[in-house]
Write a structure and sequence with these properties.
heterotrimer; A alpha+beta (413); B alpha+beta (58); C alpha/beta (514); B: 58 residues; alpha+beta; two-stranded parallel ribbon; 17% strand; C: 514 residues; alpha/beta; Alpha-Beta Plaits; Rossmann fold; 4 domains; seven-stranded mixed sheet; 20 helices; 19 strands; 39% helix; elongated
Amino acid sequence: MDIKQKIDQANEMAVKRMIEGDPVLVDVAPASEVIPGMQGKMITHSGPPIEWKRMCGAQRGAIIGQVIYEGWADNPEAAVELLEKGEIKLEPNHHHATVGPMAGTISPTSPVWIVENRAFGNRAYCRQVEGSQQFGDFHEEALAGLRKWRDIWGPTFHKALKTIGGLELKPIITKALQMGDELHNRHSASSSLFANEMANAIARTELPREDMLATLGYVTHHELIFLGHAMAAGKAIADPARDIEYSTMVTAMCRNGTEFGIRVSGLGDEWFTAQSPLVDGLYVPGYSASDAGFDMGDSAITETVGWGGFVLGGAAAILSLVGGTPEQALAYTREMRTITLAEHPTYRMPAFGFAGTPIGIDIRKVVQTGSTPIIDTAIAHKDPGYPKIGAGLVRAPMDCFKKALIAFSKKYQ
Amino acid sequence: MSMEKVDELLTKPLVVINLGLSGFADSLEAQEVEVIQVDWVPPAGGDSELMDILDKLM
Amino acid sequence: MPLGFRILNNQYFDSVFLMRVNKRLSEEPGVQDSAVLMGSEGNKKLLVELDLSAPGVQQANANDLIVVLRADSEERCAEVLARLPDYLKGGGGEDVERRFRTLEAGIQEKPAANLAVISVPGEFAAREARKALEKGLHVFLFSDNVSIKDEKALKDYASTQGLLVMGPDCGTSLIGGVGIGFANAVRKGLIGALGPSGTGLQEFTCQVHNAGFGISHAIGTGSHDLSDQVGGITTLTGLDALDRDPGTEAIAIISKPPGTRTLETVMDRIKTCHKPVIACFLGLQTELPNTNKAFIPCDTIDAAVKASIHAIGGDLTTTSSVEGFDNKDMLSQEGAGISTVNKSLRGLFAGGTFCYQTQDIFRRNGISLKSNAPLQKDQMLEHPDHCSGHCVIDMGDDYFTQGRPHPMIDGTERAKRILQEARDPELRVLLLDFILGYNASRDPVGELAGAIHDAQDWVQQRGRRLSVIASICGTEDDPQELKLQERMLTELGVVVFRSNARAAQFCLDLIRQV
């Protein structure tokens, strides 16, 4: 078998594994109890590996917030001191079977969503999704949200999920994709469907009424809550496709606001990075492009498994948020088909006559065609201390794929 | 050399992939030939090192 | 009536989509009744009411898809259900404008493709051609600036795969009546042709058509195929193919002289052909053996046309009646006033082969023409932009086409050159060619009409005469309206021939009247 055949065969296996992914939301639990390797004074963050001094403003702000939340410091200055002394371990979420949106910071007491991939038995974790601390806001109101999650909402979901024995995510994802969600920035349908299921489950938990009401209130008003599930599901779906010799399929895409990184199945744990790009988007009143930080977050795991920017064609509603026309949305999805290995048999897009979503990014096709994955994403401020300032579209940098292709040819020649 | 495939080219209907100038696809369509237009762009943005790698791997 | 069903676990489909699938199923011959639903309790009850249920069906759960049908026979049930994946594929009915950027994407879309037509920039062309060959496609390679080394490698590889490479630098082919590249609308018939010259094949096929006959196939070989470095690989394959083709009764080769070794190889192969071979190697100085009735060497494209028609048992009427005027009369008319001062011939060609054939006709009659694409080195023009004496210019040469459209497509540069030559007091005879057909200019004559008119005015105002002679290569079925193009020329006072050789001969006779 020549190398082309080996690659084709490996890719077939890799994308098949992703297609077979069967994500189930099984629990919510504190990170220290479930995330492999989470111990002592440690914070995991989004994106490829990066040291404190090179972190962007927003991620620093989020880390500072996380330190104060854990009680390791009383104020931002003290927190910075600890961090500069190197007393807190900072590691990528991806190194711990975990993902997190925007700054993506997780610390030992953070409850995380736990998704199990029933097809392979592996698990993946994702932190809560909110609009402040993960964008770099470390003020009291932002941290209050983290505490509520730790003390009330998280435990309630834990109880609810245990009561119903877990929640299958595939039916929700399938339906949501046909209802105009793209599962990165627009989760109205999936979050609604999730709320439906949770309302029933929460009501059955026999927890104190205030907690139930608080959590019900939280879940029914949180239009992006499903992003946490989608991201954990994405990670759980992608992980079994890792480490397949000769495969040129992408198994992770993530950003830390400074660098954009990808991993490739046939190239193991190596990260291929490039400068994180600027997002092209629309801004909340009071902010503009000059305030924006670079692309950030592990949420590109959704595009890695064929959602998000890859299904913009089915989510024309997102365009009012990120700026664009329905024709452009269709064109993006068509374009993504030219760089992917397969169509998903279950996840379908009505706007394309119910054709399957494009899945399995092939680094060869990316380099050959010049088309890089398109991601629709939120925008953080370049400085710490701010909430979400906008949303838009961004392309994964071509350099990551070129570097990976060159490394691949060196490894397999 | 086996002439089977060349014989077929002369006897079976043409099914064409046109890479490049769209006028060639248009004139074939005008003659009712089944043709698909590829708006070709240089692979790997024209980078020859990457093109060589792609040749080996694709 | 037998019932068949399938349960697809853990699937979800939109109800609208499922209704479309059900409609297609119900339209299948032999299917009497069908249902496509998710396995909810309500749906399962419905299936019972519709008499479309079975124990296995009732076991489905809400996340499963049930496909159930009644058909004429158990076999029919099984047949239709076996095609379920196709029905569920979706993707049809979207009017999405599909854009393909790579050869691979094109092949994925059209797996039955048998020919790649490639006109990408030269530095990428060999690579794409190679990929096409690896995928089992024949190649028509229009791109030029492909190295001889790459050309040989491509053609050697193609031979191992039993495939044909028409090119590089191949402008024309006619396969089974279909024109590829720059080709004319020519009826199908019994004469086959091949060769490295696009415009040579175009004129040959047009003349055959205009004489009332037809072309089986005209195979372009690419301009360097007959060089000694390439060795005529495509020519030899083409000869083989036409010799085997039941629809071909005579084979014509239209070319410039091959490399010495290649000429030998080709002649050896010709000896084994079962059909008559007519070879027109324009400008060939060596004598070819004319011993065999089945091999006819010719000096001009016209002679090749005549010999080919004769070889299939046809008869070509004499040339003068084709043109509609008497050559002698026209000669005296145009020849009046040939002075010793302005007596030069200037030819401005879109077709390189016509420039070449013209030089050859003059050479055989003892007159040497200067050119930017000379027959022999000592005829080389000092600078392509400046003519002196009798001179013929190939305006399709690289020098003129860098960053500009080829004169077959756009007449702007030729129009300018016509005016430039008109200003030379030496000019007496202007020779032009016009090429019709697919992908050529929509109005070749119209593009030069203004310049021809202005040139004539200029010369006349200075008390001199200018004869404008033109050949037109085309058929009445071409998109450009041959008769109208000819009329436009005649109304401009241009003497029009449907053959470059006859036009050149006319110029020769005209010039010799000095």
